[in-house]
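Hello Y.,

Per our agreement to keep a running log of every chain we model this quarter, I'm adding this entry. I've kept the format consistent with earlier entries: sequence first, then predicted structure.
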Amino acid sequence: MGSTWGHTFRISTFGESHGGAIGVTVDGCPPRLALSAADIQVDLDRRRPGQSRLTTQRNEADRVQILSGVFEGRTLGSPIGMLIPNTDARPEAYEHLRDVYRPSHADYVTEAKYGIRNWQGGGRASARETAARVAGGAVARRLLTEVSAVEVVAWVAQVHEIKASTDPDTATPEAVEASPVRCGDPEAAEAIGEAIETARRNGDSLGGVVACVARGVPPGLGEPIFDKLEADLAKALLSLPAAKGFEIGSGFAAAGMTGIQHNDPFVAGPDGRPRTLSNHSGGVQGGISNGEDIVVRVAFKPTATIASEQRTVDRFGQEVVLAARGRHDPCVLPRAVPIVEAMVCLVLADHWLRQRSVAVLEEDG
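Predicted structure for the entry above:
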């Protein structure tokens, strides 16, 4: 089972939705990086369930425990082990799903692959696993801030048919966090909140798009041919539960443009290096960062668990009607924001460390 991400900066996650805990091991983090549990907790608090009326009411504190790899407030260079106990698990609430395959979930395919599955909330396939990713991503964020002043900000760009007007050039963490919707656009936030509430009351759910910008990324990150920066970003973000689409820069809109329209002209920057007048490339050209803002978007499907009746089958081949019970997000988008940020931070930290191994010889003047 693929539970490890990264080449030089690596994370391995473990745990199930309704087991004892979720956890992560971070390997490859350089020594002497200032790091505390408080650094991790900031992002976990943004992801945790039960934080507003728009999310699942599962009440997890998600208090992280650093078990190894940190001494006197600094990393040792050894693996960093972190544990996040499950304190509000209710596995008995899923007893009615023991033999039933939920539509659009991983129930059937997991059993088809392994011959066994954890039916208590989906086990490893549950979005609960992403708490471990956020913890690992917080370490990556701390590293990026220390070594390169990289800032990663994500926001809800769309829910169902409602789009936010948030500008990637000016989006700030403060504006995003001003509303539980996390869209950075007060008018859209109100409409989105109402739409999510309506979906919940109707026993339905909504999908949408999370956008993310990474500022201050130095040029040169990315490993062509197969480890292009956008390829690793795509794999990382599409590995998230409910993720169904990925774009960088102009994305699919590029298919309707001409070369004249799409090319990003170079000009001389104030620091002497080339800069671009536009950013249709989304900060990546030829699989390598060019120093401009990296702008990506991820499409998420509507939450698969809904209270309305749906047709399905059980393990014995019998058709049944299922109306899900329990605590579930009617829309994953607000809580997906810190998860998207975490995966972007992990990719950038990994490629930053990989770039350090590339020796660039400078010619004498």
